[in-house]
Amino acid sequence: MLNHNPAWRYLVVILVLLVGTLYALPNLYPEDPAIQVSATRGGEVQQDSLVLLQQRFAEDQIALKDITLQDGQLLARFFNTEDQLRARDLVSRTLGNNYVTALNMAPTTPAWLMAIGASPMNLGLDLRGGVHFLMAIDMQAAIDKQLDDLAQIFRTDLREARIRFGNIQSDTDSGTVLVQLRNADDLAAARRLISQDRDLDVSNGPVEFSLQVRMSDAKIAEIRDYALQQNITIIRNRVNEIGVAEPLVQRQGERIIVQLPGVQDTARAKEILGATATLEFRLVDDSVDLNDALAGRVPPSAQLYYDRDGRPVVLQRRIMLTGDRITGASSSFDEYGRPQVNISLDAQGGNMFSQATRDAIGRGMATVFIEYKPTDQIGPDGDPVLEKIEEVINVATIQARLGRSFRITGINNPGEAHNLALQLRAGALLAPIQIIEERTIGPSLGQENIELGQTAIMLGLAAVLVFMVLYYKAFGLVANAALVANLVLIVGIMSMIPGATLTLPGMAGIVLTVGMAVDANVLIFERIREELRDGRSVQQAIHHGYDRALSTIADANVTTLIAALILFGVGTGPIKGFAVTLMIGIITSMFTAIVGTRVLVNMIWGGRRLQKLPI
User: Fold this and answer.
1) How the protein sits in the membrane (predicted)?
2) Are residues 510 and 563 in the same domain?
3) Domain containing 546 — which CATH number?
4) Do both 342 and 330 map to the same domain?
5) What b/e sequence results for 567-605 when a residue is b if at least 16 CB atoms lie within 10 Å of its CB, and e otherwise?
6) d(Cα 435, Cα 427) in Å, to the nearest integer?
7) Which of 6, 62, 83, 551 could form a disulfide linkage to 78, CB 3.0–4.6 angstroms apart?
8) Does a structural domain hold residue 53?
9) Is residue 251 part of a domain?
10) Shared domain check, 520 and 455
11) Same domain, 567 and 471
12) Are 72 and 201 found together in one domain?
């Protein structure tokens, strides 16, 4: 029988519409303006802080919708953005610098929808609001680190070449490494060995039998560029670790722009992205008396540090291992219930650590935590000068030769262990970074953009609906039902895809899809009219109209889909957002226009003896 719907077609259409509608529903529930408070360095917000804030909100007549404390973080919801902004300033004044306070939008999706994994679409920075960071990189620190590495390389190479040397010291002020030799023969041999590297300029040093090694300008430029690219990669890894959808991380000169739209944990994002911590592992120098060290009598091969309790520790300058060799890190608890970080190294790092600890069994090894914090001083580039803070987390006795896996203890709390593991897992920064500019795009501006975009979609939809009804009569109503279903499916699919983000250009793609979605129905309906004019029966006209228009519809949509794929592949940011909604709209419109309308047409007019059609 012509124009009869098989059972599978009903099942497919019902299932697709049901799933699409369920996952589109969360977008009907507006988000609450909120602030999120978390403690710095992995700490937790306590119950007494919650009670204090409730009192302060009441005193300042800030209406609270809800306030909760979960997993050591406080989330306060408000009725409007004005109260949200007032509350942020109040919390910052009340709790001080030991807490990070950030604006947020808290979802109100019902629990039954969240149970099936349904959540609202991720909205871009231009729709939802969010945080824009501008980060500066301390390039001088990257160059200084390279000088320290060169000094360590020279010690190893000269030792392996059996060339006797005295002190090898990097001078960050002059950007050189000073190598002191024992005699003229050793000086000549060392010059030949070091000069093999064309990126190094070797000259006579200021003292007898010494060499002064300086990196070439090309090498310094390479270090700066590599540090920038590596830091961008690490920041992307950190953003991925904290689960931010569709972030923007890009280069701007020698600075980095980070945009975090639609984040659920802005306080933690700010803390993790702004962190510049890394680790170094050094042997304890037992040959130096602590009293001499405190009096300033420290040999060139050693350095005085302090642990977290203020106790002095003398460590060797030679670094056994740095954080850039770490490939994996996780936080857990030791056998006594104390927080620890489990470390995994790459193959080269494992070999280096194995060689470094082979002859150090029974000696103390210190884990040095290094962090950079901005000061009140301004550097020549206009950015705040960073202060390098070094402290010893723990000192452990090496019981056996260590390899690619070991653990760090002596950490204050589980939150700090978790954050340290995250930073190490994401990668060690080659140069310290700091957030020099932070802009928050308020949700009110984003809401205005959403309303304007929705108005454009609704106006376009209304125009198409009216035209289809006036021109195709009852069949126009069928096309309109498919068009509405198409919009629901686009929203549902965008909500289902993790990482898909709706932006203003994306809304433009939806508007374009609204206009394009009826093209397939126009082709089908015109084909049906043509068949009727050629004398076909009603049922034959419907059947041939759908079958013979299919190839034309497929050709038109496939070519548009290819163009959208190219836009997505080569485009950036806004262009990608436009391409995503366009691709989804093309696929869903083909389904609703071909399969969906055919089901409705067959249900209403199929299999019946009719003399004419309302088309």
Assistant:
1) Multi-pass membrane protein
2) yes
3) 1.20.1640.10
4) yes
5) bbeeeebeebbbbbbbbbbbbbbbbbbbebbbbbbbeeb
6) 18
7) 83
8) yes
9) no
10) yes
11) yes
12) no
3-class DSSP state for residue 544? helix
Q: Specify the pLDDT at position 548.
A: 85
Domain assignment present for residue 113? The answer is no
Specify the pLDDT at position 41: 60
Write phi, then psi, for 392 (nearest 5 degrees): -85, 120
Residue where a domain terminates, one of 439, 460, 490 = 439
Residues 296 and 432 placed together within one structural domain of the fold:
yes
- Of all helices (H) and strands (E), which one includes residue 105? strand 99-106
Q: Which residues pair with 228 in a beta bridge?
A: none
Give DSSP secondary structure letters for 33-60: EEEEEEEGGG----HHHHHHHHHHHHHT
Among 169, 200, 218, residue at a domain's last position: 218
Beta-strand runs (E) in 240-383? 248-252, 255-261, 278-284, 302-306, 312-322, 326-333, 339-345, 364-378
Tokens matching residue 454: 């929705």
> What is the distance of C-alpha 578 from the center of its chain?
21
Mean pLDDT by 10 residues, the chain (615 residues): 82 93 90 81 77 89 88 86 84 79 80 88 74 82 83 84 86 85 90 87 88 89 85 76 64 84 60 68 87 85 85 87 77 83 81 83 85 68 70 81 78 73 64 75 65 82 87 89 91 84 83 82 88 86 86 86 88 79 90 89 83 81
> Pairing between strand 501-502 and 122-123?
parallel
H/E stretch holding 537:
none
In this prediction, residue 335 carries a pLDDT of 80
CB 513 within 8 A of CB 544: no
Same domain, 459 and 548: yes
| Residue appearing with tokens 């129905």 | 521
From its phi and psi, is residue 573 left (phi > 0), alpha (psi between -120 and 50) or beta?
Answer: left
pLDDT, residue 20, reads: 93
Count structural domains, the chain: 4
Classify residue 247 by burial, with Cβ atoms within 10 Å: 0-12, 13-18, 19+: buried
Beta bridge partners of 395: 366
Label residue 369 left, alpha or beta by phi (over 0 means left) and psi (-120 to 50 means alpha). Answer: beta
Query: How far is 352 from 404, CA to CA, in rounded Å?
Result: 9
Q: Which domain holds residue 406?
A: 275-410+427-439
pLDDT at 272: 64
Establish how many alpha carbons lie within 13 A of residue 580's alpha carbon, considering only the half-sphere containing its beta carbon: 23
pLDDT at 488: 92
Residue 48 lies inside a defined structural domain of this protein = yes
Q: Domain holding 160: CATH number?
A: 3.30.1360
* 583 and 555 assigned to the same domain: yes
CATH number at residue 76: 3.30.70.260
Sheet holding 364-378, edge to edge: 302-306, 312-322, 278-284, 364-378, 384-397
pLDDT value of residue 167 = 84
Report the alpha-carbon distance of residue 264 to residue 242 in Å, rounded: 9
pLDDT at 254: 82
Distance, in Å, from the CA atom of 297 to the CA atom of 306, rounded to the nearest integer, reads 16
Q: What's the token pair of residue 549?
A: 């228009």
Dist. CA 411–CA 418, nearest whole Å: 10
* Cα 270 from Cα 100, distance rounded (Å): 8
